[in-house]
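Possible regression after last week's pipeline update?

I re-ran a chain I had predicted before the update to compare outputs. Posting the input and the new output here so someone can diff against the archived version. Not blocking, just want to make sure nothing changed silently.
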Amino acid sequence: MLRKIGRRTEIKQDKTGLEVPPGQFVTDRFPVLSAGPTPRIDLADWRFRVFGLVRDEIEIDWEQFKALPSVTTDAEFHCVTQWSDLKNTWAGVLFTEVLKLVEPSPTAKFVMAHSYGGYTTNISLDVLSDDDVLLAYKHDGEDLAPDHGAPLRLVVPKRYAWKSAKWLNGFEFMAKDRPGFWEVRGYHMEGDPWKEERFG
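New output (post-update):
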């Protein structure tokens, strides 16, 4: 079944009726794609930092992070390399719970996600504040594997998967947008799969 949505190209549905973004094919596999080697992270040394345009910068360890309220949610996952996995169950902490730990400045409009290994990606605060964005430590009932971002990855279902940063270890709140790792290499600043925002 096909339908038009505004100026978007036609959207197809898979056999269960779920919509598939334009240019994507559906798979039940979960390929491993990374920009560099998989970091090995000792949970005893793991730290998560929130800094930049916030009232009080924080740094928490793994035990403190795991003590935050957790949720389980189903969400799609769309890779810029054109595959989509429409059925994923993630467990972790909602981004909005992290917001409760800090008070962003009224001038904070964007966030840079930082990861072990030096990876970064930029996302607007409005997008991150959506009710399905979480910091995940489980996928489909299992602890995340290191190649898939363990111990923690950002999951932003309404954006291409390069925005769902693996090995997450911090958020930097910013007034102005700034490109991250793939964005400086030509990827789109927004990365909306429904608009096919693959490249800038």
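Follow-up from reviewer: compared with the archived run. The chain has three helices and 14 strands. Marking as no regression found.
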